[in-house]
């Protein structure tokens, strides 16, 4: 279980690092737009991210 969690965390870091590595300008612009969102909008983005992750986990089972 711990090794699976560690692998998942490692994969998350790889995916999180892809956009800043490949397209740093687009990554910076995306974060500028994210900062401009109000709390409710940012929470909605977080909710969509959680739902997408759960959907992928469901598909994997």
Would you write up a description of this structure?
With 61 residues, the protein is mainly alpha-helical. The chain contains three helices and no strands. α1 packs across α2. The longest helix is centred in the C-terminal third of the chain and has 22 residues. The radius of gyration is 14 Å and the shape is flat. It starts with a helix and ends with a helix.
Kindly give the count of domains. 1
Which quaternary structure do these chains form? single chain
Structural class: mainly alpha
Termini gap = 15 Å
Counting DSSP E segments of at least 2 residues, the number of strands comes to: 0
The best one-word shape is flat
Rg from alpha-carbon coordinates: 14 Å
Features:
0% strand; mainly alpha; 61 residues; single chain
Break the fold down into its secondary structure elements and pairings.
Elements: H1 2-22, H2 24-36, H3 39-60
Helix pairs in contact: 1-2
Short recap of the structure:
By secondary structure, the chain is mainly α. It contains three helices and no strands.
